[in-house]
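In response to reviewer comment 3 from the previous cycle, which asked for concrete evidence that the modeling workflow produces usable outputs, we include below a single protein chain processed end to end. The sequence was submitted unchanged, and the resulting structure tokens are shown without manual editing.
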Amino acid sequence: MSSAVDSRANGGTRRPPGRPLTASGESFLRIGVPPGTPDEARAAIERLLELSSILARRAAQLQEALDSRIVIEQAKGVLCERYSIDADQAFQILRRGARSNRMRIHDLAASVIASRTTPPELSVVGLPGLVKQ
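The workflow returned the following structure tokens.
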């Protein structure tokens, strides 16, 4: 049986889908399987490696989503303070502004918290009328 575990252990270049790679194209996961290991055990090892790769990728996606959500929550807080609105209204404003300008809500939120003035992308949603004097 020619498996990904065998090919990686023997210096092969075959890689199962989803296996994380380093910048040089090598797998992060390297398992040496002793000679004489039953085919069922090799298959189980391959499946565990695949599942580990999937879990690592999902964890990275969740971390990215969390990081993005933090920026959005900060922008909501800034808009709540600037315009004396509640958090739901602030989110609706961010969402409308992002859609109207065909940009990611995370990018718009980042521009809100990066400046003391409200970004021009939010003028589309009628924010200038809400400005506190």
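Helices lie at 4-9, 39-83, 87-100, 105-114. We consider this sufficient to address the reviewer's concern, and the full set will be provided in the supplementary archive.
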